Amino acid sequence: MWFFSVEFVISNRGRRHMRLDGFSFYAEKVFPEKNKVRWRCTRRTCRAYAHTLNDRLFALSNLHSHEPPAMPPSALAAPYRAFTHAALATQAKAVLND
User: Fold this and answer.
1) For residue 56, which phi and psi values (nearest 5 degrees)?
2) Which residue from 26, 29, 60, 98 puts its CA 20 to 30 A from 10's CA?
3) The pTM is what?
4) Nearest CA to 24 among 47, 2, 7?
5) Which residues of the chain have pLDDT under 70?
6) Where does the record place the FLYWCH-type domain (predicted)?
7) Structural domains of the chain, with CATH
């Protein structure tokens, strides 16, 4: 028997992603009549995939062609996005004040 840390999250674009032991997967194909989803690694060249049935992992090819990210993408994306919006607001104020 094998155990994995599985987490479902919403991406920055509003799509459902699955995190599995530090790797991120996107829903490649959804079979709503069977409550089944085929997931692919978010790295374009990686061939790793997983299958879930009722949000429970039942098939997995966890052979990634890369290392897992050092930090989860959401931990990196949130401060960067906040910085970007703050920078844009500052630039807009500077233009309006000129």
Assistant:
1) -115, 130
2) 60
3) 0.64
4) 7
5) 1-3, 71-98
6) 8-66
7) 6-71 (2.20.25.240)
